[in-house]
């Protein structure tokens, strides 16, 4: 089941449940980064209070709203963090599977090891 990020504080949700353990780790890191970069918490005390009593979904939704354009993957113009200074001639094209943890690195593929 996929959820909207504003449901991260739902007490019925216990853990991430992706098909792969490394994806669960990536989802956890994403959630931490999203919360750290969007919440107005500026002290350990504030974070401690928030840990004890998480904000409701509507508050999280309000905090996340300014970041929504970064997640529009099919829209006009440049996408979030897209680098237009690179050209096809400068880079190496890799299959998406090369991003997975068990895929051999560039050196292993080059040396057939």
Tell me about this structure:
- The structure is a single chain.
- By secondary structure, the protein is mostly helical.
- The protein has one domain.
- It is built from four helices and no strands.
- The longest helix is centred in the first third of the chain and has 18 residues, at 21-38.
- It is extended.
- 2% of the residues are buried.
- The mean pLDDT is 86.
**What's the number of structural domains?**
1
Distance between the termini: 39 Å
Q: What is the helix/strand order?
A: HHHH
Q: Beta-strand percentage?
A: under 5%
Unreliable stretches, pLDDT < 50, 5 or more residues? Answer: none
Sheet with the most strands? none
Strand tally is 0
Report the principal-axis shape: extended
Structural class: mainly alpha
What proportion of the residues is helical, as a percent range? 25-40%
Number of helices: 4
Question: What key attributes describe this structure?
Answer:
113 residues; mainly alpha; 0% strand
